[in-house]
Amino acid sequence: MKQTARIISTYSADVMGVCSALFELGGMTVMHDASGCNSTYTTHDEPRWYDMDSMVYISGISEMEAIMGDDEKLISDIVDAAEKLKPAFIAIAGTPIPTMTGFDFEAVAAVIEQRTGIPSFGFPTTGMNTYIHGASMALAGIAERFVDEPDADDTGNGTLQMSPRQIMSVVDSCCRKPNGITVNILGLTPLDFSINGQDDSIVQWLENEGFEVVSKWAMGSSLDEIGNSAKADVNLVVSAAGLGAAKVLYERFGMPYAIGVPIGNELPGLLADQIIINVRKFREMDASATEKAPFEAREIGVDSGLFLDGSCSSSVSANCSSSVSTNYSRNVSTYEEGFAAVIGEGVFSLSLASSIEMECGIPAKVLCATECPEGILRECDRLTPDEDDIIPELEGAAYVIADPLYKPIVPESAKFIPLPSEAFSGRLYRDDIPNLIEDFDQLSDQLADQLSDQISGFGQI
Amino acid sequence: MLKKVNEKQNTRLSADEIPHVRIADANFPAPFRSGLEYSSPARGTWNIVHTGMLIPEAHEIFVCAAGCLRGVVLTAAEMGAQDRFSTVAVRENNLLDGDMEDLVIEGVTDIINKLPKRPPAVLVYTSCVHHFTGVDLDMIYATLRSRFPDIDFTDCYMNPIMRKSGLTPDQLMRSRLYMLLHEREKDPNAVAIIGNDLPTDEDSDLMRVLKGAGLKVHEITSCKNYAEYQEMAESSVYMSYNPDAAPGGDMLAERLGGTHYALRFSFDYDEIDGTFAGLAGALGIEPRGKEEIASLRAECEKELAETKKLIGDTPVSIDYTFCPRPLGLARLLLDHGINVTKVYVDGIPGADRPAFDSLRKDHPELLLYPTVHPGMRFARTANVSEDDTARKVRMLAIGQKAAAFEETDHFVNVVEGGGMTGYEAVTRTCRLMREAFLEKKEMRELVQVKGLGCEICVR
Fold first, then answer.
1. What is the pTM (predicted TM-score) of this model?
2. N or C: which end of chain B has fewer CB within 10 A?
């Protein structure tokens, strides 16, 4: 039955996604909730809670306040706290009760902003969607309010002017020359990337490829740095949580975006090449265009078939196993012989699945349990929000790569490769979360070991 | 130390700016205005998942929105009890379609049918949204009982919005623990301790009195299986010493017969004697004699003197998660020369009123600190930055929240009274204080573990 889970966990919810996305930006985030959301978020969803002094609170709404529609209590509590603590912004995020009472997030945020003079947001989360929904909403809000127009001095299509010193710094820090392209990374939260250095590894990869990183949304960048994002040439969306901001930045500044996580040994280079090629192409197109291109036309990545064979053919993206890299030395598996199922967030899982196909020769399909906008997943991939959606999709799987809390529903016939995710199991397996941007081989070796076992097993027969 | 999120924002508060009030100036029972709430990283107190798991072999099914499910499902996972835990997610369409009853009934049915083994009992937890949509819970449970006559169902609640109306969620949960007991013949020699999460100390005054009287003592924390749990119903006297268990005790006595005696958890010698004399009356046994009481008091005085001698003027802080009577403890320690400087408490328990009043008079400079006030976000930094590093022990904390706010590794790691009762609560607390003074603990790791001692539920 849909909506039931006999034994698996549940993903972090939209309200927590708002908190996670805004955590490092110096604001004050208030979950409009009776109790429980705050301890859940700070225990299971926020690995930075103990060490960073971010202001995340709950409103502590009571039965009478909900019934009487006493919004003034919330407003005055927030105003009171904000006057003392002086946050850079205020965000209110919703839970089931405000959803039921028809709480007007936008209006209340406007009142608070008027009283405090502090930019305020009302995010109408419900506590019934996953963190992706909330984080995307929050980052889009930041893109609307805090990203400044690029200075007139900035050249071209938002290209950041680098000083000679900056250029030398980039050259020194990497083996490739600066390519003159500047990037924002969108959709970085510990829920998808933990606190094990994956965010830094993405930055390092970009710098090694000759890019300059302007901002990281939202791990490791201040609100001021994020405010400079319009100076970048392109946005790299590393989780579906970044898509909302990508869309706003496109609408405001015409910025293109790439989707993908640099996982593996081949995919990162292909992704970098695609970004360079397309950014240059867009520059040329923009120079001669009379009309603004649509948002979708500014996407670099999945639709271009990048994750499958590095070509720009959109036709191959529909078939999971047809375009595995031909230079791979092993026999390419087919679905009939078993496949790898990757369960998790859409963009991360798709990048991982693509690398598995390219480098291990194993067809891989994504079972995306969180929200993922249309057009990102392939035809063979599935949106599987519930336990009963996932179980039939695992039939015939030779490998299942997923958070350990999925293991009880994985068929015994499949090899289970644990890939913990903060968004699913919280802090439970935090120490075991790999940095796949840095080291894909450990995971691919597990697949390879199994593959060679199978091959030798067949030989014995 | 806390890392500053935004170096440009001057949001940190100095020690003076951290919210606090002299007890002489504090209001009863709410010394601090309610407002936005902060969540301390200290997690040792139990929640409704842990408490429900005390019923051996029972299966928990939570029906609520994903955001509410998140904390409870991971509580179960962290305690290694995910095989006894399932969920039904409420989504927006359920609110709009008015099919909440169907969702609960069919969801619970679906889960039970998928379980590898039929549980003897199922705890179905509904939530705030059910309360606000006027869901017919009676019909839901009647339907489930008729579908699964071999399973005992009980209604449990995760509706924190009701925490200020009627019974608190904690009181409700403790009362639900015993709703599954079936009526059976009473054994006049059997008694039950009810409503506590942690096992009662074998050395506690309560256990010594009960065992000394030759009574058969039931306690949910020691039941190994569901059949053993059912044996609790033979008890002729039910005793509680957690104040939040008292309403459940009254309900239980009314439903199954027998009597309920609410023992008062206290650090006041006269109150201890009074409550144990009342217990003796309820049990029909001889109360403790003057000689025994004098000996118990002498033991307490010895422990308190030894503690004072060891820790000297080291500042001591106490928080409300340590025991139900933090001000009573503060009073006892201050009266014995121990330098209690802070008590972390958001509201003052009614039973602590006498201690509150006497502290206001005799120790007016004692400071009360909240734990959920928004400014407490910055307390850890403010406390650490005090120039007090020369001391061997900067602060001795009693309780996890005090330890976290004070950023001290010298702390007593006990929650909810830790199974202590009577004079033994005094002597054991003293011993734990000395131990904490002499030996550091890994505070950061220890306080973040949910449900201290909850491993007893996994069976």
1. 0.92
2. N
